[in-house]
Write a structure and sequence with these properties.
Chain lengths: 326, 596, 361
């Protein structure tokens, strides 16, 4: 396990540096020039040169990248703005605020959205899947499969916008989504995010229902499940300890993917519900040609994918002892 | 400032002026895409009639006295809420160029001059910190301003002429690149940062003089009749010499306006409280009626619209500086009778043009034939119908001072195109069946607009070769001198409501990345522009600009004017004094109050 | 010979499944008894209803899809239709089962110790520690070396034979009265097979457990069973002691089964004679004797008898079969059938298994 983690962590670090480099160099292939954006509409040459210098864009791209990379590990000094301590992701091109602070400030929103919704969709998705599997072919099963079909064909921006329009504005059943830090007031935190959670969960539940149902059906016909019954294990034990256990691997797989793409999904979710998370930050950074912010959000998204991949792989070994980590 | 669509405006708000000056048509959808859902209605009203152009003139010393003229039914006190998508990129006024940030700065920043609302659709350029809108001498080269008594910083110290001079000088410092360049250029040279590096190393700029604590004298190299317009820009707002922290000032500005920033959570919210050292008696511009302002950011147009439509709780005391009604709600909002007293509409103050590339389409008869045949009406239908835009017939936007109406090509008389006249002109031209390469921004709406143009031109024998172009690189591609195109859309906005920042730019130097997109290089026009720029009298200059507008259109026809978008906003029912400002095209905070 | 209340008594058992194609009569009127300390071998081809019968005894069929009729009595207690808790209390406790493929029949997710121990905990109310100790003890008993270490290992870490020993340890952990072993050695190679069978025999001698051994391998039966039941198409076609059935089989199907077994000492160019044809459809079984389409002698019992009327096995105990041939015909034909296969070696040629039979006889 330790060897596995060490090896994968090193690989992950290398991956992230490569992604950082690719992002960095691709950025400069984009047609928009951040220096031009930091210069007024009427922009005389010397002003443009100064804008370029202020953003650190007047050096060779390669040097810029190395300085950025060094900043991540040892910090960096910025002319007029002072020292930016490690891990320094730079200052935003747009408002010259430290990128790292902004990310740290926004991350809890995105994470809260993810955690809350995933708890709901895991419980409902897996629960419905199990019930459907145990009632194979009966009305409950059919209802669950129709519901999951509908759910999976929904989109956040559609359901979310409808939910906002009716539940919040027209009928005023729930307040506008807002983010209150968990540490400040856990109840307010949950209440403020309840609507996005439910909408997100409604869409994702379907995946888990289908996955759980089909795997569960398979598992129920496994020999070892029959053995368990032949041993006199009670119905519930058979389902939870044996059959459900076998569905964990596929669920962990899709859950890992769902968590890994959290920032991609957050773009739409946070926009729909007017929440200020990392998703919004990432789309803003693209629109604004804000390289430091863009780097940070891309890296965060990449890190999420890499880390959750490692976690899921490690989890396989925990779930299924036949899996050997290598 | 130039922008065409609501999203473009939002982009503008995050301090990306260059991008928006170069904001491609139909960029990112916006109200333009609402067109698909709105078939033209038979009983349409032409909004041009509803929106007469604003009257903007220079005010007197009397006009410059405070307090501001109160809107009808004004109530003072309470907290007003403002919601928009984006926070302000800069709190240092010297780094502000865009209309949205400038509008916010009315709350905390004062300058030598500003725009005072004196009546419905009537504005005057007056002295803000200065006792009047400036005294001109030396044939328009020397401008003298005297500071009012009792104008103070938020800490109670008096605002002096040294502060004003300092505020101008610091704009030359390397860290300030974002603001407008005009005053700096007029004081020095075109590439103004070459001649002076700012006051921080102790060097002063000789041609701003401060004979005493109250007097500031600007000595320009050339006459500039509208320097008081230029100085009304937020970029020339004042910064205290004693408390200037250079780069860091952007995060911790000192207020000279009616409010102080009490709390600011970047990109999320801002709270303003009264500045006890602001005296309304010195301020002819700002009403500052609410006691407190609560600003929140991060709301998309749809969320903002739905909140205003629902109008519940605190949202009744809420408005938006710049967020327009979301495109998908436009028709609903316009048709809902219960919302009519809460909607605000205003045509944009920006120019919107279909440029000819004069290097390629050399025959004026062909250009004029296209102008006659132009499918204005069809385009209007596609882009959202007559509720969302008005027909422009001139190069200058009607909101520009001195604008005079004319309609050489009958855009209003024949909104569907005057095909007979067009055919007649084509017959006289060197090539009765020309081929025109038309570059368009590859968005769904623009695709449909292009088809309409293509079909229309086919009727008079002109073959349109439509070239789809990428939205992101739109301005880079069309901004090249050798762009390989005959016709393309472009936008431009004046920095202040005179033609002084229009004609010298859009018919100025032809270069890659420049703004002379028709590549007009007529010596006569250039000479006339130079002459008018040198005029010391603003009214005379304005008249001359209007005449030049018509002359260029009649004799050269370098462009076909595009439609002028009508901004549509909603507000909470308890917000009073809100309207879309005809100059800045956003809701000014100056007249806002909260109804009980 | 039959006691008044046999230990396990199956009477007129019917099991049928609803499928898309129709009703499958997997078991159609089966009766047999098993006594303590004895082993009943149930033989037959795949699909003859052997496994279905035993799952029915344990009540492991999905009640929604299965129709079960008849009686299954354990020491007089009716098991068919018994409530869930009663059955759960019986399973793994008084009646245990060993499945064919220990790799799939053991949970891959739990250690063998846990899988063995949980049965003990469930039925005997033992603590975790006790259960673990018991698991180690059981592993030792079934001959797994180093049981203290291996108790914490997972099934995939064991070899096939060891895995089957784990299965047996798990089945015997509560000292069951009845052990149902469904093809316990099919997945194993021959040497391991013999070890496992010996193990079962030893354990039976120690505990007096009754064993139902399901197999298609007559060799296995010969080695372990006291009584034999031959099943065909969901019915018993022959029944008797091991010596009776294997020594003097009466039913042509049993002959077929015997002659399809390779024998040691037989010349390799003598072909095996598998039972020709394929097992009958259980949805539309042939009229008359279900075996008649594959039988070589349907005419001998009369022109139409085998094709129209189903022969029943005699309800009495003892050696019995379901065939219309006379005992005389059966004896003669059996000799011929044997002779046909063993022309060169005559009756001296015996398989290892049949030697075994003689020895025991």
């Amino acid at each position: 396990m330790l060897r596995f983690l060490t090896r994968r962590t090193v690989a992950a670090a290398v991956t992230l540096v490569i992604i950082a480099a690719v992002t960095f160099f691709l950025f400069f292939a984009m047609p928009s020039d951040p220096a031009r954006l930091a210069c007024g509409k009427v922009c005389p040459p010397e002003t443009l040169a100064q804008a370029r210098h202020n953003l650190g864009l007047d050096q060779p791209i390669f040097v810029q990248f190395l300085e950025w990379l060094a900043g991540v590990f040892v910090g960096r000094d910025y002319e007029g703005l002072g020292h930016c301590s490690a891990p320094c992701l730079g200052y935003s091109f747009v408002n010259r605020a430290p990128v790292f602070n902004t990310i740290i400030d926004r991350l809890p929103v995105t994470i809260s959205l993810t955690i809350g919704s995933s708890v709901i969709y895991l419980i409902f998705g897996v629960g419905t899947g199990v019930i459907a599997a145990l009632n194979q072919g009966k009305a409950l099963d059919k209802i669950a499969s129709v519901a999951s079909l509908i759910g999976s064909s929904m989109q956040i921006y559609f359901v979310g916008t409808l939910a906002m329009y009716f539940l919040v504005f027209q009928w005023q059943l729930i307040e506008r989504p807002r983010y209150v830090p968990f540490t400040e007031n856990p109840l307010e935190w949950a209440y403020g995010l309840l609507l996005p959670w439910l909408v997100l969960a409604m869409i994702s539940t379907a995946n888990y229902t289908r996955m759980t149902r089909s795997t569960m059906v398979e598992q129920l016909s496994e020999d070892y499940v029959r053995t368990a019954r032949a041993k006199g294990m009670s119905g519930r034990t058979v389902i939870t300890r044996f059959a459900l256990r076998g569905t964990l691997s596929p669920i962990a797989t899709i859950f890992g993917v769902d968590l890994a793409v959290l920032i991609g999904g957050a773009i739409i979710t946070e926009t729909t519900f007017s929440l200020q998370g990392v998703g919004r930050l990432s789309i803003q950074s693209v629109v604004n040609s804000d390289l430091p912010m863009l780097m940070a959000t891309v890296l965060l998204a990449a890190a999420a994918i890499v880390v959750f991949n490692i976690i899921v792989d490690a989890l396989y070994a925990v779930i299924d002892p036949r899996v050997r980590l290598s | 400032m130039s922008t065409r669509r609501r999203p473009a405006l939002a982009v503008l708000a995050i301090g990306t002026l260059a991008l928006t000056a170069a904001c491609a048509k139909g960029n990112a959808g916006g109200s333009a895409d609402a067109g698909s859902s709105s078939a033209p209605r038979p009983s349409e009203t032409n909004l041009t009639e509803l929106f007469a152009p604003p009257k903007i003139e220079v005010g007197t010393a009397d006009d410059s006295k405070g307090p501001a003229i109160e809107p009808e039914g004004v109530v003072k006190g309470s907290t007003v809420n403002m919601i928009d998508r984006d926070d302000y990129p800069h709190l240092d006024p010297g780094r502000v160029y865009d209309n949205v940030t400038a509008n916010f700065h009315l709350l905390i920043t004062r300058g030598l001059t500003g725009y005072k609302k004196v009546g419905d659709n009537h504005y005057k350029v007056v002295g803000d910190l200065a006792t009047d809108a400036g005294q001109v001498s030396d044939g328009g080269k020397t401008w003298t301003f005297t500071l009012k008594d009792g104008v103070k910083w938020q800490d109670g110290s008096p605002i002096t002429s040294a502060d004003v001079k300092w505020s101008m000088e610091r704009l030359f410092a390397p860290f300030i690149t974002e603001g407008p360049p005009y005053i700096q250029q007029w004081l020095t040279e075109e590439d103004y940062k070459k001649s002076y590096k700012g006051p921080y190393d102790g060097k002063e700029l000789g041609n701003i003089e401060t004979p005493d604590d109250k007097t500031v004298v600007f000595k320009f190299n050339e006459p500039h009749a509208d320097a008081n317009y230029a100085l009304a820009m937020t970029g020339y707002g004042i910064v205290p010499k004693a408390k200037d922290t250079k780069e860091k000032y952007d995060k911790t500005p000192v207020s000279s306006g009616p409010y102080i920033i009490a709390a600011h959570s970047l990109d999320k919210s801002m709270d303003l409280e009264r500045n006890p050292n602001w005296d309304p008696a010195t301020d002819p511009i700002r009403g500052a009626y609410p006691d407190k302002w609560h600003l929140e950011f991060g709301y998309q147009a749809l969320a903002v619209t739905d909140r205003f439509v629902a109008d519940t709780g605190d949202d009744q005391k809420t408005f938006s500086f710049y967020t327009h009604v979301a495109a998908e709600r436009t028709q609903q909002v316009l048709q809902d009778k219960s919302l009519q007293d809460r909607i605000m509409r205003r045509p944009s103050p920006y120019g919107d043009y279909y440029y000819f590339n004069l290097d390629r389409v050399k025959d004026v008869k062909i250009r004029q034939a296209i102008a006659y045949a132009w499918p204005t009406k069809q385009i209007q239908t596609i882009t959202g119908g007559p509720d969302t835009s008005v027909i422009n017939t001139t190069i200058l936007n009607p909101s520009v001072s001195g604008w005079e109406d004319y309609d050489v090509f009958g855009f209003k008389q024949h909104p569907e195109g005057d095909l007979d006249k067009a055919k007649e002109l084509l017959a006289q031209s060197g090539d009765p069946t020309p081929t025109i390469v038309y570059g368009y921004n590859n968005t769904p709406t623009e695709q449909r607009v292009t088809v309409a143009i293509k079909n229309q031109m086919a009727k008079i024998g002109i073959k349109i070769v439509a070239k789809p172009m990428d939205t992101k690189t739109w301005y880079d591609a069309t901004g090249k001198v050798e762009n390989g195109l005959d016709m393309y859309w472009g936008g431009w906005g004046a920095d202040w409501p005179t033609a002084a920042t229009v004609f010298p730019v859009i018919f100025g130097p032809v270069r890659d990345g420049g703004y002379n997109q028709s590549h007009l290089k007529d010596p006569e026009v250039t000479a006339e522009i130079k002459r008018i720029e040198g005029l010391a009298d603003v009214d005379e200059a304005n008249k001359a600009w209007a005449a030049l507008d018509k002359k260029i259109m009649e004799t050269i026809t370098p462009l076909v004017p595009g439609l002028n978008n009508v901004g549509l906003q909603l507000r909470g029912s308890k917000v009073g004094g809100a309207e879309i400002d005809p100059i800045s095209w956003v809701v000014s905070p100056n007249t806002i109050f909260v109804k009980p | 010979m039959t006691p008044i209340t046999p230990f396990l008594s199956v009477q007129d058992l019917h099991v049928s499944f609803q499928t898309e194609d129709g009703i499958v009569k997997a078991v159609d009127g089966l009766s047999f008894d098993v006594e303590k300390g004895t082993t009943l071998g149930i033989v037959g081809e795949s699909g003859s209803g052997k496994s279905v019968t035993n799952l029915a005894i344990l009540g492991l069929h999905d009640p929604e899809r299965t129709d079960i009729g008849g009686q299954v009595r354990l020491e007089g207690q009716e098991l068919l239709g018994a409530d869930r808790t009663t059955m759960e209390r019986l399973r793994g406790n008084r009646i245990a089962m060993i499945f064919q493929d220990p790799l799939t029949a053991l949970s891959p997710f739990h250690t063998v110790g846990r899988q063995i121990g949980e049965v003990y905990r469930k039925h005997k109310g033992a603590s975790k520690r006790e259960a673990r100790e018991r698991a180690i003890e059981m592993l030792e008993r079934v001959g797994i070396p180093n049981a203290k270490v291996r108790v914490d290992e997972y099934p995939h870490m064991f070899s096939g034979g060891m895995r089957q020993r784990v299965m047996i340890a798990m089945a015997l952990v509560c000292d069951p009265d009845l052990l149902i072993a469904d093809e316990p050695t099919t997945a194993l190679d021959v040497t391991v097979q013999a070890q496992i069978l010996d193990l079962l025999k030893d354990l039976q001698q120690q505990t007096g457990t009754a064993i139902i051994l399901i197999t298609h391998d007559l060799g296995v039966v010969a080695q372990t069973a006291h009584n034999v039941l031959v099943m065909y198409a969901g019915r018993a076609v022959e029944r008797g002691t091991m010596r009776e059935v294997l020594g003097s089989p009466r039913h042509p199907y049993t002959w077929g089964l015997l002659s399809s077994v390779p024998r040691l000492g037989t010349s390799v160019d003598v072909p095996l004679r598998p039972v020709r044809g394929t097992p009958p459809s259980l949805i539309n079984p042939p009229p008359g004797c279900p075996f008649h389409p594959r039988c070589d002698y349907p005419e001998l019992a009369g022109p139409e008898l085998c094709r129209t009327q189903r022969p029943e096995i005699s309800p009495d105990a003892g050696h019995g079969d379901a065939c219309y041939l006379t005992l005389r015909q059966k004896t003669d034909l059996r000799t011929v059938a044997h002779a046909a296969q063993t022309t060169q070696t005559t009756q001296t040629a015996q398989t290892a298994q049949t030697t075994h039979i003689k020895d025991r006889a």
